[in-house]
Fold this sequence. Notes:
Structural class: alpha+beta
Oligomer: single chain
Protein name: YqaJ viral recombinase domain-containing protein
Shape: extended
Strand content: 25-35%
Largest sheet: 5 strands, mixed
Distance between the termini: 22 Å
Number of domains: 1
InterPro entries: PDDEXK-like_dom_sf (IPR011604), Restrct_endonuc-II-like (IPR011335)
Number of strands: 11
Radius of gyration: 19 Å
Helix content: 10-25%
Organism: Gonium pectorale
Amino acid sequence: MVLETGFISLPPRDGMPPLGASPDGLLLAWRDNPSKGGEPVRIALEFKSRFPFTKVSGKENGEDSYVWAPHKRFPDIMPPTHYAQVQLSMLAAQATSCLYLENTVQKTNVRVVPYDPVWLEAAIGEEPTAVAGPGAAASGPTTGGEWSAQ
């Protein structure tokens, strides 16, 4: 099941500005049949569209235009700013991993990014916690079971 998400606030931290994230969606997946009950695995969704055009300023007529500038391939690594965004999204959504989709007019690349509590602790400065619902605090996600994000 895919859920639409909005902005999710994280609890206040001393000396830090307010933090939060807005994943593009949240995928809920059950290890067993959902009718048997049990908690779903939460997977954040993040979509990035690589705009294959470059803006060219209009020197003669003053109007800007765009020219085709295709990307030769997807980068081998995710841009650091996107990694930070994905990690905060997983923390806020209590997700164990994130499906990071990069789209161009030529193809779509999908990466599975695991939740990284060590990175979050270094970035935020303390053990991360997330907000489970309006005003309710919960610990960050844990991985377990047969699921792996490799």
